[in-house]
Amino acid sequence: MLITVNLLKLRCPDLIMMLRKKTRTLEKGQKILVLTDDKFSNTDIILFCRFMKHTLLSSSLNKIPYTYLIKVHTG
User: Fold this and answer.
1) What's the mean per-residue pLDDT of the chain?
2) Which of 3, 5, 10, 12 is catalytic?
3) pLDDT at residue 60, as a whole number
4) Is 49 assigned a catalytic role?
């Protein structure tokens, strides 16, 4: 099941804090689609995934909203 998280209008650190809060509610292996308009979100989300050991499956930065597909590895 794919969960969509709308993080439009949020900037770091709020963006990452809300993403972390949501990933805590998911089970290992679930996928989450993140929507954001923060132009610096790419670096933030890459580092978040690396630190939390999630897998960033894809990202699209061509237009707003930017999208990130993440596979959760912890729950």
Assistant:
1) 95
2) 12
3) 97
4) no
Q: What residue spans define the domains of the chain?
A: 2-71
Beta strands in 1-75 (DSSP E): 2-6, 31-36, 55-60, 66-71
- State pTM to two decimals: 0.93
Residues 6+ apart with CB under 8 A from 5: 18, 19, 22, 32, 33, 34, 35
Domain 2-71 CATH class label: alpha beta
Beta bridge pairs of residue 61? none
Q: What is the pLDDT of residue 75?
A: 56
- The whole-angstrom separation of Cα 8 and Cα 70 is 17
pLDDT at 42 over 60: yes
